[in-house]
Amino acid sequence: MSTPTIFLFVTSSGRAKDAPELVRETVAAGWKTYTILTPNVDSVLPPDEIYGVPGSHAIRGYKDPPLNRFPFGTMLVAPCTFNTFNKLALGLADNLATSMIADALGARCPIFIAPSMNHGLWNHPQARISEAKLKEWGCIIIPPYIDEKVVTMASVTDILQVLHQHFK
């Protein structure tokens, strides 16, 4: 059996602060882990906190390996902001992350999405339309944690549980 490969896309949600832990855990699980950041992640934490996790592989540009290999593998968008969530459903590919995910959608690669946004955005009509469209296309939406104050990305433990099931 080959080593599972996961491409972790990190967007600029406040929960991006959990990305280094998620990267460490995927590497510890023995998965080949590539990290790709959307352009504004640096407003939440320094990119090197994610890119610098030992054992992971950073993809910073269109010519970085393994982008010459297609299809890529399993994709995980965690956390996924309202903006990226809707871009994916609308087929918009305006940066490296959304371009790779659009390619993966077309290639029918497994795509897992862990939304993280505020209540108003989660309840926005476009978010509901996007969720339905992404599910229709075969994406797995990892349910966010929702209470009266927040709609936030599932815990790292919950995300890993979903991925472990996928790689069984």
Automatic annotation (TrEMBL):
Source superkingdom: Eukaryota
GO CC field: phosphopantothenoylcysteine decarboxylase complex
Keyword Magnesium: no
Residue span(s) of domain Flavoprotein: 5-144
One MF term in the entry's GO annotations: phosphopantothenoylcysteine decarboxylase activity
Keywords noted in UniProt: Coenzyme A biosynthesis
Pfam families, A to Z: Flavoprotein
Protein's UniProt keywords contain Metal-binding: no
GO biological process, one term: coenzyme A biosynthetic process
PANTHER family: HOMO-OLIGOMERIC FLAVIN CONTAINING CYS DECARBOXYLASE FAMILY, PHOSPHOPANTOTHENOYLCYSTEINE DECARBOXYLASE
Family note: Belongs to the HFCD (homooligomeric flavin containing Cys decarboxylase) superfamily.
Protein name listed in UniProt: Flavoprotein domain-containing protein
